[in-house]
Amino acid sequence: MSDTLLIDSFRDKNAILALSKQIAKSATKLSKKLCIMEVCGGHTHTLMKYGLTHLLPENVSFVHGPGCPVCVMPKNRIDQAYEIACQKDTILLTLGDMLKVPGSKGSLQNARSEGKDVRFIYSPMQALEIAQANPDKKIVYFAIGFETTTPMTASLLERTKNAGIKNLFFHINHVLVPPPLEAILSSKDCQINALIAPSHVSVITGAKIYAPILEKHQIPIVVSGFEPVDMMESILCLIHQAIAQTPKLEIQYSRIVNMEGNQKAQAMVQKTMSLREHFEWRGLGDIPYSALKLQEEYEAFDAEIIFDPILSKTPIQDNKACRCGDILKGIAKPYDCKVFGKSCTPTSPMGSCMVSSEGACAAYYKYGANELKTSKAFL
Q: Cα dihedral sign for 358, 364, 367, 371?
């Protein structure tokens, strides 16, 4: 079967409508409203692009979670990247979405316009080539991402060490999925009673990382694929769990995800990195043991140590008009923000949820006007 035919089967109109009817019928048996958090920005984009929320009954709703690594990056970490980029004989490397994220001193894109050597790379491994081509300069990789991308940074670090490269350094901003979910679900105003868990993360970690959340909060959890049929199947699974009042951890995305994950990748990360005691999340505040740092034996490559004297440490508040924090907590939607689509757009973003292509605000801005039209096309 060709890739096109395979994808088409997960976007099939008749399959989506059939699942929509099953969902509507099953939802009549719910004892209370099902409020689902889709943690990953990729799932948010699927919901918006295909207008799936308009195919659901009123007692099934969605809130958007903190599953976009660019969106949760606090201003002081952006400021540190900016400060490093401003140092003489330094090249700062990062992934594309990070260039536009505003810090208190400007974005990395601003730094580029000021003549600083800031480059975006498609693969972390490009950092090796740049370091080898510029032996007289300090190359700093501003590493971001959840558990999905962390093994790539770990692999790059090992290759850097083994190759004897001395001018490549790492500013580690890798964060973990379970701690912010635990913080959100434990908050007194939380209305979330079901989770669609990130699937790309789960490929690396295995679905087992959500077991403690299930045990403590007793809510249905499904690891879902990203296509519309995947999402509708996952919603139906959550409804069936809620009706039966038997919350459990299910894997809908079984063609990719299992319970144990990629153990080789996990071992690589454990060898090179350890938990940070504190990490400030944009909009969520300080969440203990929610992010990673380099192990002591790799301190020679740690940009936070090498550049420590010039790095800002104080947390910085977001613009009060921006509601990205509330959106990341799942207590507001992009439309609830007064600056959404006005002074805050993808070309002039005020908040992180609009900057990243995975952000909830970016999804609403891109697909919002056609969301209802798209859903009606299925009917």
A: positive
Question: What is the arithmetic mean of pLDDT over 45-65?
Answer: 94
In Å, how far are 69, 149, 170, 304 from 265, measured between CA atoms? 19, 10, 19, 24
Q: Which residues contact 309 (CB under 8 A, 6 or more apart)?
A: none
* pLDDT for res 311: 96
Nearest-angstrom CA–CA distance, 151 and 160: 14
Residue of 261, 119, 153 whose CA lies nearest to 199: 261
In the block, tokens 């969520």 appear at: 284
> Cα(144)–Cα(202) distance, rounded to whole angstroms?
17
Q: Residue 341's beta-bridge partner residues?
A: none
Tell me how far apart the alpha carbons of residues 220 and 224 are, in angstroms, rounded to a whole number.
12
Query: What are the two backbone dihedrals, phi and then psi, of residue 317, each rounded to the nearest 5 degrees?
Result: -75, 150
- pTM score above 0.70: yes
Instruction: Characterize the bridge pairing of strands 60-67 and 194-197.
Output: unpaired
Q: Kindly report the backbone phi and psi dihedral angles of residue 310, in degrees, each rounded to the nearest multiple of 5, phi listed first.
A: -105, 5
Give 288 or 376, the one with higher predicted confidence.
288
Pairing of strands 292-294, 273-275: antiparallel
**228 burial via Cβ count (<10 Å: 0-12, 13-18, 19+):** buried
| 16 alpha carbon, distance to own chain's centre | 26
Mark out the alpha helices in 10-122 (DSSP H runs).
13-27, 41-49, 75-85, 108-113
The two tokens of residue 44 are 């948010």
Tokens of 173: 């901003």
Task: Let me know: does 213 contact 221? Beta carbons within 8 Å.
Answer: yes
Residue 297 CA from chain centroid, whole number:
28
What confidence tier does 152 reach under pLDDT thresholds 50, 70, 90? very high
* Three-state DSSP class for residue 255: coil
**Cα–Cα distance measured from residue 359 to residue 362, given in angstroms and rounded to the nearest whole number:** 5
DSSP E strands, the chain: 34-40, 60-67, 90-94, 118-120, 138-145, 168-174, 194-197, 221-223, 249-251, 273-275, 280-281, 285-286, 292-294
* 372 confidence band (pLDDT: 50, 70, 90): low
Of 134, 86, 133, give the one whose Cα is nearest residue 112: 86
